[in-house]
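Example record

The entry below shows one chain as it appears in the dataset: sequence first, then C-alpha cells.
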Amino acid sequence: MMTIVFISIMITLSVVYFILSQYFIGHVLLLGAYLILVLLSSITYMLLVKHQNASLIRRLNDLFDKIDYKPDYTDNELSSLEQKLYTLIKSHKAITEQIEREKEQMNSLISDVAHQVKTPLSNIIMYTDLMLENKSTDDDKPEKIRMQAEKLRFLIDALIKISRCEKGLITGNLKIYQHNIKELLTRAVSDILPASRQKNITIYTNCDPKLTAFFDMKWTSEAIYNILDNAVKYSNANSIINIKTTPYEFFVRIDITDSGMGIPENEQADIWKRFYRGKLVNTENGVGIGLYLTKEILTSQHGYIEVASKPGKGSTFSVYLPRTQI
C-alpha cells in the first residue's frame, strides 16, 4: 500500500513539473523545487519503510518468542498472517511439549522396567550356573537357558544405557579432563580380550605413551569398546585388529581397523542410528545401539567419528578426540 502511494506521488510531481515547465521554460527554481520535493518524498518513503520493517521484525520476534504478545485483530493482510502464524506456533509448541512428555514417560518406563528385570534375571543366571555345576546328564537345556538369559541381560543393559543417554544422564555428567590415550586404549582392549580370545583374534596397538587428549575416561572407554566389540563380532576367527593413533594440531585420531565383512556404502550413514542393523549382520547377536551411543558420547565431548569401509575388505573407524579443552 505504501509503495503504491509513493509511486502515485512521484507520478503526480512529475506531471505537475512537466505542465509547469511549459510555462516557465528554463526556470532553475522550478527544477530545484521539483528535485527537493522528489528527495523529500523519497526520504520520507524510506523512513516509513524502515519503520514498518522494524515494527514487523519486532512483532514477529514477539510472535515467535510469545513474550507479551497480543495478536492484532485489525482487518488487514499482515494482521491475518500474524494470527495464522500465532495459531501455528501455539499448536506446534503444544505438540512438541506433548511429545517431550511422552518421550520422558517412555524413557522412565524403560529404565524402571529394566532395573526391575535385572534382579530376577541375575537369579536365573545364578541358578542356571548351579544346575550346570551339578548336572549329571548330557542335558543341554541349562546351557541354552543361560545363553538366552545372557542375551536378555545384554539387551536390558543396552536399554538402560540408551535411556540414560536420552535423559542426558550420560552426556550431561561427562567429566572431561586431560587423559592419556594409551591408558584409554588399554582399558578398552582389556574389556574386549575375553571375546577376542574366543575367536583367536589378535589386537595390535600402536600408540605414543605420552599422547594425551581431553575426554571422559569412563564413557570414552565405553565408546572405544563398542567399536572393538563390533570389530570382534563381525570379523572372522584368527584375524587381526589394528589400533593406530595419529596426533594432529587440534585432535588425536584413533584408527581401529578390522578385516571383517565390511559395511556397504549405502548403509554407512545409517549405522549411527538407534537400533539400526545392517543387512549383512542380521544373523549376529546385537540390538544396534553401540555405534549410536559411541557417536553421542564423542560428539558431547567435541569429538567426532568417521568410518571407511568396503564389503569383504573390513572397516576402519576413526575417532577424533580434542587435544585442547573446548
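Notes for this example: The two ends are 52 Å apart (CA to CA). The chain has seven helices and seven strands.
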